[in-house]
Amino acid sequence: QGKTAPAQGKTAPAQGKPVGDALFAKAVRAAQAGRLAEAEAIYRRMLGADPRNAGLWANLGLVLARRGRSDEAVAALRKASALDPSTAEFPGRGALIALRAGRASEAEAE
Predict the structure, then answer these.
(1) How many angstroms separate the first and last alpha carbons of the chain?
(2) According to DSSP H, which parts of the chain are helical?
(3) DSSP annotation of 85
(4) What is the maximum alpha-carbon separation in the chain?
């Protein structure tokens, strides 16, 4: 589909919430268009309503990484991993962001 969607649809908002679905789609479109501050704001708003959504934390982490905020990005991806330990992709993304930020020892710990 070409979206910045996380693994196996884990970022989809809870079913039956069309407003959430619309917000999620808006955040994805904003991120794809490079409107990263807008995407971040939407993901944070959605997390305010659904703080245990691992996929939202993962997408927020990716947006933060693109904004150059690697510490916050790694923290968001770690939160995603803690909420959904079955998804091995989240820690890997955190390690990659840490490595790109020049923190090799932290990346190895991931």
Answers:
(1) 29
(2) 18-32, 36-49, 54-66, 70-83, 89-100, 104-109
(3) T
(4) 43
> What pLDDT digit, counting tens, does each position of 87-100 carry?
656 656 655 665 56
Six token digits for residue 47: 């997390």
How far is it, in rounded angstroms, from Cα 79 to Cα 83?
Answer: 6
Instruction: Say whether pTM exceeds 0.90.
Output: no
The tokens of 18 are what?
A: 């069309």
The length of the chain is 110
What confidence tens digit (pLDDT) does each residue in 54-80 have?
Answer: 889 989 998 998 998 988 988 898 898
Q: Could you give the C-alpha distances from 14 to 8, 62, 75, 109, in angstroms and in order?
A: 14, 21, 23, 32
By the 8 A CB rule, do 60 and 72 touch? no
